[in-house]
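Sequence design from tokenized structure. All designs in this work follow the same two-part layout: the structure record, then the generated sequence. An example of the structure record is given first.
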């Protein structure tokens, strides 16, 4: 039986990384085979270039950097499929939806063009979209260190996530409670998805 493919999405500093890790810890503690994965994976060949770009050490044309983010996912595509097919569930911090929502928030970038490089990647069984208020997250430590941490840009990103939202496999998560409360609310949803995935075929984007 295959594992589930679950993605957490949202604007910057909305708390989803913390929740991803807490969910992985929780699942492991109950004996469920699962792994944490995150995009961009900065340890990969493409990830190093992306990291320099995000830290504003290098400049790249918007389309080129978009394709690098996509290539970063394609680098791990065989691993994603193999783990899932072997029964390991994946809890993934950002995926193609961030790719599209962030690039298409840039001037002159078309959302449909942004989706093209993602065609054929495995489609998650569940996307948890973390709702957050930009005025709240922008108060968090270190805000502004990375390229996209700007209030107006993040608002546009959130609007783009709404355009990508597919109610058949997306759930919005209210990320304003305490860390513990958010994890507790997530648990039943994650367990239900793990169960359903066992008898469902892994689909592709889009
Ligand atoms: P992180 O803070 O989750 O490591 O993500 C780094 C930044 O990269 C964040 O601002 C979102 C952005 N991003 C993209 O622009 N395209 C992508 O495909 C991904 C995965 C992230």
């Amino acid at each position: 039986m295959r594992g589930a493919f679950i993605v957490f999405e949202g604007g910057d500093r909305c708390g989803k990384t913390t929740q991803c890790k807490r969910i992985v810890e929780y699942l492991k503690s109950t004996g469920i085979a699962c792994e944490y994965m995150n995009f961009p994976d900065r340890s990969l060949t493409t990830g190093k270039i992306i990291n320099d770009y995000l830290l504003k050490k290098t400049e790249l044309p918007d389309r080129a950097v978009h394709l690098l983010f996509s290539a970063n996912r394609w680098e791990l595509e065989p691993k994603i499929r193999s783990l899932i097919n072997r029964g390991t569930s994946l809890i993934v911090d950002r995926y193609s939806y961030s790719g599209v929502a962030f690039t298409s928030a840039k001037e002159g970038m078309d959302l449909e063009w942004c989706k093209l490089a993602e065609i054929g990647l495995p489609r998650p069984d569940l996307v948890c979209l973390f709702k957050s208020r930009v005025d709240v997250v922008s108060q968090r430590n270190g805000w502004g260190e990375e390229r996209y941490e700007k209030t107006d840009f993040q608002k546009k990103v959130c609007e783009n996530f709404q355009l990508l939202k597919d109610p058949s496999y997306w759930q919005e998560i209210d990320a304003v409670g305490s860390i513990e409360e958010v994890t507790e609310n997530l648990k039943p949803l994650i367990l239900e998805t793990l169960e359903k995935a066992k008898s469902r075929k892994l689909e592709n984007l889009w």
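Helices lie at 16-29, 45-54, 62-85, 96-103, 111-116, 134-137, 151-164, 179-197. We note this feature because it recurs in several other targets discussed in the main text.
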